[in-house]
Structure formats: C-alpha cells, structure tokens
C-alpha cells in the first residue's frame, strides 16, 4: 500500500515524497486510518518504526482537511494540538518532522523545553498555535504563569510514554492533563506495553484502538548484534581499534555516566577520532550543536548517556556501541534501536567486561536470542605501560622523585625534636622574608605610651579600734560610713533590712 491509500491530502503526500518516504511502515498503515476516524489510539512499537509519521500525518490532516484551513480562528495563547515528549532532543526532532510534513500548510507551531531562555518560546506561543510540541516541565511552568492556554486542546499525543514514566515525569504529565478539556482525542505511543503504561492508558484513553507492531521487548531483526568480552581497562583501546580498522564513519556510543562519556570522548579525540559527549550536564546549545554536526557527518562519534537513547532520530546510522551495558535490560532495546531504522540494516556492538556478564545474560533472556561474539579485527590488548601513557597526569606523579615530595614523616620527626613544622631550629619561620608590617599603638614600647592618670590612694587606717581612730576614719572618708575593720560585712544576697534566715534553725 502507498500513502495515497491512507486518506491523506495531496499537500501531505507531496511533503512525504519530498522527505524520501514512498511506502508507509506497518505502524503507519494501522495508526493513520484510526486517527483519521477520531478514535483514541494506543501503540506499542520499537523506535525507528515510523511512529512520528503515524501520529503527525493524520493530526495535520485533521487540523487542515484536504490541505485547507478548517475555519478555526486562532486565539492568543491557545493550542489546538499538544505533543508531549520526555527529552529536549526528541521534542526538537518531532517538531522538525511536523514542520517538514506541513511545508504546504498554513501551520503555526512551536517547540518548548527547558535548558534555554523562555522568552522566545513565550513570543512564539502568544498569537496562538495549531500544534505545540513540549516537554512537561517547561510547559507546566508556562501554564502556571498563564502564558499558554490548554483549555481548547483537541488532540493530545504522549510520545515515548514509557520513557516519561522511567524519568519521573508522570506527575507533571498528570498536572498538564488536568488543564486539558475533557472532550479530546488521545494518542499514546510507547516502546512497550508495561503494567504501568497499561494502567495509564486505562485512565487516560477512551475505548482505544490497540496496536502492537512487534512482540514486546524484542529487537529489530535487521540489526546485527555482536558482543566482545574484554577487560574494562581495555575497552577504550578496542573501541578506537574497531572504529579505525572497520572504517566506521558514524558511531553512536552509549555510557552509563556523564563523567564516563566526557572521559571517553576526550580519549577518542586524542586518538585522532572526532568525538563529542552529549548528556544532561551539557548546555542545550552544546547538545544542539553536537547533534547538528553528527547528523551532518562532520562529527564522527557521539558519546551519549541514556538520556539520548530515544531522543536521537538519525537516518542511516550504521553503528551503535554499548561501551557499558545498561543496568535495565529494556534500555538495551532502546539504545540499539537508533540503528536499523526505516528498513535499513545496522550493527550493534556491546563491550562486555567480566562484571557485566550477568547483565548480558539478562538481556539475552529478555530478547530471547543469544548475542554472538564479534571479530576484533586483530586487536592486541595494550600493555600496562600503554595504559599509563593514556594517563599522563598520573604517570607524572608516579615518576616524580621521592626527594622532591614533601614528607609527612620529616615534619613529624622535627616536631619530636622540639622543632615545629615550617620553622628553623632557631625558632624562626622558614621561607622568604617580606616587609614587616607597620607598628600600631599596641606594638610601641610601653615607655613611649602615655600613662593613665592614677586614682588618689585611700589613706591606710592602722590605728587601734577606739573612738579617736573611728573619728579619724570618718574625716578621711568625707564623713561617709566606713565599716569597722573587725566587723564582717553583710551578705549581698540579703534582702534590705532583713537578716538571712538560718538554714537549719540555728
């Protein structure tokens, strides 16, 4: 069958022909007629099976019947169709595909996601849109600020719904859905029909048409899969060897961690292989630039974490490498699904260290197939000296003469001998002498400082205790009451005019 038999307008057919597609994929054959009937849809299909065209083409046909405006009047900040995606890269590529299909249509669309300034996105939404492609977080922020109106959405698409669940976006998705009108068409696309996805579909969809193009958790048959058992310390050298000897022109490499992706890209560049890392810590501009160069062929190797496992849509990608196996077996299917797309063949290579054997067995049980061992193309494992040369900073530290390194023991011995660390034997501090600080008033000799005026000394009473002596004391103290030297003063804590009571009645 052809696209013309699916009920699409001539404007869409011409746009599809321009993109190079002539025959619809199995998922498109089943999804497009169902969407055009206005029914809710639930699709389980692997990546690379044409899911974007499966909902973008019929959605454009519903918004623009026969390629003409439907008479709908756009209102400020209102959206007619909403597409939610889990990652920025996937949102940008879905929007790009929609605009490619709508080259002959008066489409107003926009794409919003985090990581970039919101002002251009707000300006794009302001006049009203036919289609908005968005990541849930940024869309919810704009909706809370009343910068986008979702009350008139006619079609909702959840793309890669299972990935949204894995990444913890389901709460934001529910908040977005709560802002939508009750009467709308819902389309849900997922790689698998897990228990969580089925529960979400039961709450969201209304009597949906269920489509499963491939059995759950199986890999595309056109992808040739290979595994290489190797020590983890030799993986980088083997990868560079396979790329060089196999003349691989475009390679997507997956790692578990962001730092691992950075280190691997740096190593490959040192080997003369142009590489760039893409992950969540990279700015959106850097991620967009790397993806653009990779698609254009100017960047040979892209090293990515699983954030890009479903966000990259690259035609004719021949090689995917699992530098480290994923901890979740299902992610293996999503990773290698980047190759072998649209009916083309591809190769998926996995580098397996001894501690990853259990992960490999789990993947083989899930996919119900055994992954064969690949040809290493005459690879010779590097020696320990070669590995040290790959780490120049570490080698320099180990080769540094021990006499030039500060010794903690030497300082400890000096302290035992009565000498403080950092001081010479005469007690003076070691090191270059600098200018002495200016002396302040406190640093001047005491003889140069003005003396405080002294109080007049009280006369010393040494006379015996008789009436004459008492009279002399009174005259000396200005007729003030002076206690008798032999008389003990009253306690300070005694109440005025009261004697302190005895504690034990005595």
UniProtKB/TrEMBL annotation:
Residues 32-211 form the Helicase ATP-binding domain. It comes from the Bacteria. It is an enzyme of class 3 (hydrolase). Residues 425-459 have a biased composition (Low complexity). GO terms for biological process: response to temperature stimulus; ribosome assembly. GO terms for cellular component: cytosol. It catalyses: ATP + H2O = ADP + phosphate + H(+). Residues 222-388 form the Helicase C-terminal domain. InterPro entries: DEAD/DEAH_box_helicase_dom (IPR011545), DEAD/DEAH_RhlB (IPR044742), DEAD_box_RNA_helicase (IPR050079), Helicase_ATP-bd (IPR014001), Helicase_C-like (IPR001650), P-loop_NTPase (IPR027417), RNA-helicase_DEAD-box_CS (IPR000629), RNA_helicase_DEAD_Q_motif (IPR014014). GO terms for molecular function: ATP binding; hydrolase activity; nucleic acid binding; RNA helicase activity. Pfam families: DEAD, Helicase_C. Coiled coil: none annotated. Its EC number is 3.6.4.13. Belongs to the DEAD box helicase family. This is DEAD-box ATP-dependent RNA helicase RhpA. It comes from Halopseudomonas salegens.
């Amino acid at each position: 069958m052809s696209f013309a038999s699916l009920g699409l307008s001539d404007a869409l057919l011409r746009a599809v022909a321009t993109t190079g597609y002539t025959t619809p994929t199995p998922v498109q054959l089943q999804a497009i007629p169902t969407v055009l009937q206005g029914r809710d849809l639930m699709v389980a299909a692997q990546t690379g099976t044409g899911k974007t065209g499966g909902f973008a083409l019929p959605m454009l046909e519903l918004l623009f019947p026969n390629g003409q405006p439907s008479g709908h009047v756009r209102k400020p900040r209102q959206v007619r169709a909403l597409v939610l995606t889990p990652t920025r890269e996937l949102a940008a590529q879905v929007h790009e595909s929609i605009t490619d299909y709508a080259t002959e249509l008066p489409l107003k669309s926009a794409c919003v996601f985090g990581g970039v300034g919101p002002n251009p996105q707000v300006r794009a939404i302001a006049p009203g849109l036919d289609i908005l492609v968005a990541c849930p977080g940024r869309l919810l922020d704009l909706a809370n600020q009343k910068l986008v109106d979702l009350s008139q959405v006619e079609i909702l698409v959840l793309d890669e719904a299972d990935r949204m669940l894995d990444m913890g976006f389901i709460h934001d998705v529910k908040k977005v859905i709560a802002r939508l009108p009750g009467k709308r068409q819902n389309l849900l696309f997922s790689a698998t029909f897990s228990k969580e996805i089925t529960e979400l579909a039961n709450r969201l969809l209304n009597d949906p048409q269920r489509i499963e193009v491939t059995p759950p958790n199986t890999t595309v048959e056109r992808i040739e899969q290979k595994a290489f058992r190797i020590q983890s310390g030799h993986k980088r050298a083997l990868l560079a060897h396979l790329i060089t000897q196999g003349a691989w022109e475009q390679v997507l490499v997956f790692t578990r961690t962001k730092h691992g992706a950075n280190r691997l890209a740096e190593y490959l560049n040192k080997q003369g292989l142009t590489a760039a890392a893409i992950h969540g810590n990279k700015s959106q501009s850097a991620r967009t630039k790397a993806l653009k160069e990779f698609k254009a062929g100017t960047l040979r190797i892209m090293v990515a974490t699983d954030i890009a496992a479903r966000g990259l849509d690259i035609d004719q990608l021949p090689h995917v490498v699992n530098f480290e196996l994923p901890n979740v077996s299902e992610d293996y299917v999503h990773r290698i699904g980047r190759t072998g797309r649209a009916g083309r063949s591809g190769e998926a290579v996995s580098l397996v260290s001894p501690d990853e054997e259990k992960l490999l067995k789990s993947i083989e049980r899930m996919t119900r197939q055994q992954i064969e061992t690949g040809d290493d193309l005459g690879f010779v494992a590097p020696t320990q000296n070669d590995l040290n040369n790959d780490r120049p900073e570490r080698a320099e530290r180990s080769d540094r003469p021990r006499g030039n390194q500060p010794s903690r023991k030497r300082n400890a011995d000096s302290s035992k001998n009565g000498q403080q660390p950092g001081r010479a034997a005469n007690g003076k501090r070691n090191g270059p002498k600098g200018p002495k600080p200016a002396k302040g008033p406190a640093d001047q000799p005491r003889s140069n400082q003005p003396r405080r005026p002294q109080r007049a000394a009280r006369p010393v009473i040494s006379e015996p205790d008789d009436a004459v002596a008492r009279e002399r004391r009174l005259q000396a103290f200005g007729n003030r009451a002076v206690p008798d030297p032999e008389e003990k003063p009253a306690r300070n804590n005694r109440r005025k005019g009261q004697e302190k009571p005895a504690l034990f009645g005595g």
